[in-house]
Amino acid sequence: VVRAWSVIVHGGAKTIRPERQIHNRTGCETAAAAAQAVLEGGGSAIDAVEAAILAMEDDPTFNAGYGSVQNADGDIEMDAALMSGVDLSLGAIAAIRGVRHPISVAKALLQDKAVLLVGDGAARYAAEIGAELRADSPPAVPSDEACNTVGCVALDNAGRLAAGTSTGGLNGVRAGRVGDSPIPGCGLYAEDALGGVSFSGDGESILRLALAARIMGDLAALDVQAAVDAAIAQMGRVGGEAGCIALDPRGNAAFAHNSEHFAVGTADPEQGVRTFLNQKEFLDG
Ligand code: ASP
Q1: Least confident of 25-29, 140-144, 154-158
Q2: Of 213, 162, 208, nearest in space to 184 by CA
Q3: In this structure, how many other beta carbons lie within 10 angstroms of the beta carbon of residue 234?
Q4: Which one of 121, 138, 154, 247 is most buried, by most CB atoms within 10 A?
């Protein structure tokens, strides 16, 4: 199938307690609908991914932006990245503090020579571009949902792909710790001719396996569902949980995870917005 546009979002690879499932579905639905509005209006894949992630960064359900978890020092350090499949432009920030929307700082960086800024330098760049500051910490959200990063991949009706990620990292990690989310070839990647991917999960494991890069390599030969399944199967080599979403250049969506749940939303012109809490729901259609 060739779709005019398509989007897939995720709200983390994790176990979702029954009473939290509705929040995860609603959050993914809202994010997918925000991207849909951009794409239906003829907007770009980059703007669609930003729109979806903006919604999730403001939703305390997710460990990104407002809902970010604290590190071992009790501080909130966030990572985010945005990549364009058109020209492989990339903006990424790591261990940034004090901003409301890390994804928008990453987006601004798409125009800059630097690809990845960290810590104080990232915060200074955010101040230079007038990025909004974050509100106080949100009310404590039950944080048995370990991996809770958000991500999005979109295809626009000009055939452009984009992928993004945003995260508060993992609960209680060392100050300065950076996971897979802002690292190209690990937490995300996009290239118009091949597809786009975005991950959640145990960042150290995803980094060690360079999982996004593996999927991009496989997409030349495998269909998108087989490529994401193969990537998640690699997790057995290093341990840990992960989930990944992907689109191929025709807008076919796929996802895979070895966590109990993976909160996902999709939207395309034929099927509108749909949400899933695991792969079986999706494959059973
Ligand atoms: N992958 C993220 C990290 O390791 C965490 C997550 O997916 O929740 O920073």
Answers
A1: 140-144
A2: 213
A3: 18
A4: 154
Q: Which of 46-50, 59-63, 153-157 has the lowest average pLDDT? A: 59-63
149 counts as catalytic: yes
pLDDT band of 64, cuts 50, 70, 90: confident
Whole-number Å distance between alpha carbons of 241 and 154: 24
Instruction: Let me know if 60 is exposed, middle or buried by CB neighbors in 10 A (0-12, 13-18, 19+).
Output: middle
Mode of pairing for the β-strands spanning 116-118 and 90-96: parallel
Binned at pLDDT 50, 70 and 90, residue 53 comes out as very high
- From 30, 61, 149, 167, active-site residue: 149
* Ligand 1 close to Cβ of residue 195 (< 6 A): no
For ligand 1, say whether the CB of 179 is within 6 Å of any of its atoms: yes
